[in-house]
Amino acid sequence: MTVKHADDVEARQVAAGRDTTIQVLISAQEGPNFALRRFRMLKGGGMPQHTNTVEHEQYVLGGRARIGIGSETHEVGAGDVVFIPEGVVHYYENIGEEPFEFLCIIPNKDDKVTIVDAASC
User: Fold this and answer.
1) Are 52 and 29 in contact (CB under 8 A)?
2) Model pTM?
3) What's CA 28's distance to the chain center, in Å?
4) Residue 69, Cβ density class (10 Å: 0-12 exposed, 13-18 middle, ≥19 buried)
5) 55-102 confidence digits (pLDDT tens)
6) Angstrom distance (rounded) from CA 56 to CA 21
7) SS3 119
8) Residue 105 in contact with residue 36, Cβ under 8 Å?
């Protein structure tokens, strides 16, 4: 069993993102089935259109963002829940004045990320 404070976990820049960090709060080595990550996008930050080979379950902690999922676009804020199926093109864009933060749970499987359009970030 692991107990730690999220602020003690290293935040790393998301390589394809703009002004976006990721913290792996519970890694694949700690949890047998799922990993828990926290993303933070500063004002104007985001991630370009991409696909993953694993699904995403997300809970928005704060801020506001536009999220594209397939052919749909959604504006989300604190308390919203987002599901992104594996293989579906998606992107994120912080549209608020404050950081956009969310938790993201993924299954502990190989995840191949494919950037579809880096200009969309």
Assistant:
1) no
2) 0.93
3) 16
4) middle
5) 999 999 999 999 999 999 999 999 999 999 999 999 999 999 999 999
6) 17
7) helix
8) yes
